[in-house]
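re: ur question from yesterday

yeah so i grabbed the chain u mentioned. its 240 aa long if i counted rite. heres the sequnce exactly as i have it in my notes:
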Amino acid sequence: MEGYEVLVVGAGFAGSEVAYRLARSGRRVLLLTQSLDSLFLPVTPVTEPPAGDTLFAEVFEEGLPPFLLHARAKWRLEAERPRLHLQQATATGLLVEGGRAVGVRTFEGPAFRAPRVVLAVGTFLGARLSVGRLEEAAGRLGEAAYDDLFEDLKGWGFAFLPAEQRAAPYKGAPGYRVRFYRFADDEWEPATFRLPRLEGLYAVGACVSGGTSYRDESESGARLGEALLRELEHPSGEGA
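ran it thru and got these structure tokens back, copy pasting raw so excuse formatting
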């Protein structure tokens, strides 16, 4: 599919909700993730039920265990083809033209373009994950950090703050700590989700909040989806 209207980088709870809301409304969206096998995958217990009209609410109501929650969400996203395209690739930097983000470069080679780019990269910017005495460049167990993307964003002048999340041992999986960076408060507009340093660039989830509940991540993604739908329906002459 060509002619994406929105490119979403990151397919956790927030990024998946953005893409799902857009695709259900007939918009053409690319959802880019490092691992399709961990799309919408909770790695800690879901302690707070979802609310509202969200993908999370739809799959949660089926009473599935965590891994099947991920599988069902992936099935629902795939069912939105051809409006929604899932792509496994690692974003390494922004494509910028005339002060506007117009896509991303990837480690695998291909570049992907859209007039609106959403960063929903969670705990992966400059991330370092510790399990006992071991440390690796990862945002969570088994998933590599976005080090190249982090350096590229700093090169565009973005400022960041350190953040940290911890996960307790769960059903045989070890506990761990992940240290990462989130956008500084003055880089992000909560009301619009914009990163105004560059036109056409938005962020949602832990890369701006530092980390909240699955419910909050889901709801914020749905809100950004609605905001983007309003922009797409009523463009303001920004060149999109």
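noticed a couple things. The helical segments are 13-24, 55-60, 66-78, 147-155, 206-209, 214-233. also The longest strand covers residues 160-167.
anyway ttyl
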